[in-house]
Amino acid sequence: MRLLTVALMLLAGCDGGKVPPREFDGASALRYVETQLAFGPRIPGREGHERTAAWLDSLLHARADTVLVQRWVHRTAAGDSLRLTNFIARFKPAAATRLLFLAHWDTRPRADGPLSRDSTLPVPGANDGASGVALLLGVADALKQLPPGIGVDLLFVDGEDYGDFNTDQDVLLGSRYYAEHLAPGPQPRFAVLFDMIGDKDLRIPQEGLSLVAAPDVVELVWNLADRIGHGDVFVREEQGGLTDDHVPLQRAGIRAIDLIDFTFGGPDNQWHHTPDDTIDKVSSASLQVVGDLALALVRVTKP
Ligand SMILES: [Zn+2]
């Protein structure tokens, strides 16, 4: 394994470093999904949320150069107080050229999607929540193994999925908080949000608001996906704009795009926000594809 990696790196060096070697471990990323599901739903205020926070905190401290923790209390529309936490795992915190990768680590309190069979249950969040977190943790593992030449920030946002997307109330809480309290120092060249990227039947089109705010970043990512052999997953089709964690970042002046497969279970997105967002719907192969892309992005970005 090690030899193969070295040989590939030498090869890559010979042809101008065009295709970085494969470093991401999809099987281990799937285990990160399993661990999160074992904690139970990661709903702010519940035990599973608290235990996941402790787990993230310890994993990130063991991998990143520094970890910033943002804690605050959000007052919901219903008058409840939610204790929320963002984690920012920083690699090369002083580097001027940086990339920001983010995912939400909370899960939705109620499975109230239009096609849900039972809206009284919580969403397990194997794909909507755990897949993005697993992706970032797999990236952290690889960057610990071989530190990046540029700065990388891995942002785990809380409270994305708590409230009502129709009224825009009590949603995207962590990304909003982050956008109002940006990490100190140089800001990222661009940011990539990973959301619902573990679907077995993975297909990622170009999300509309990403195309408006950062078309060149979309082009860069899709070209790189082609080059590393994942053009079958990163399809050149447009997906209508989505309210997601990239939006508050865009409003703060960060060129952020959203990688998301919003056809979870089929064209009707039938497992989204339902009790059926379970681990059997997620695969290590899909996590591998997106993990390859994320790490390739880090390795091809020149300081
Ligand atoms: Zn969601």
SSE diagram, text form:
Blueprint: H1 2-14, H2 26-38, H3 47-61, E1 66-75, E2 81-91, E3 98-104, H4 126-145, E4 151-157, H5 173-180, E5 190-195, E6 204-207, H6 208-213, H7 215-227, E7 234-239, H8 246-251, E8 256-260, H9 284-300
Parallel strand pairs: 3-4, 3-5, 5-8, 6-7
Antiparallel strand pairs: 1-2, 2-4
The structure holds zinc ion.
Zinc ion (ZN) binds at residues 108, 128, 161, 273.
**What is the count of DSSP helices, taking H or I runs of 4+ residues?**
9
Order of helices and strands: HHHEEEHEHEEHHEHEH
Low-confidence stretches: 1-16
Identify the overall geometry: globular
Count of distinct strands: 8
**Most strands sheet:** 6 strands, mixed
Order of strands, widest sheet:
1-2-4-3-5-8
Structural class by helix and strand composition = alpha/beta
Helical fraction: 25-40%
Alpha-carbon Rg, integer: 18 Å
Query: Per DSSP, what share of the residues sits in E-state strands of 2 or more residues?
Result: 15-25%
Q: Provide the residue-averaged pLDDT.
A: 94
End-to-end gap: 28 Å
Can you put this structure into words, describing what you see?
It is globular and about 50 Å long. A six-stranded mixed β-sheet has the order 1-2-4-3-5-8, with helices on both faces. A two-stranded parallel sheet has the order 6-7. A hairpin with a 5-residue loop joins β1 and β2 (81-91). The protein has 303 residues and is an alpha/beta fold. α2 (26-38) crosses α9 (284-300). 37% of the residues lie in helices and 18% in strands. It has helices at residues 2-14, 26-38, 47-61, 126-145, 173-180, 208-213, 215-227, 246-251, 284-300; strands spanning 66-75, 81-91, 98-104, 151-157, 190-195, 204-207, 234-239, 256-260. The structure holds zinc ion. Residues 108, 128, 161, 273 line the site of zinc ion (ZN).
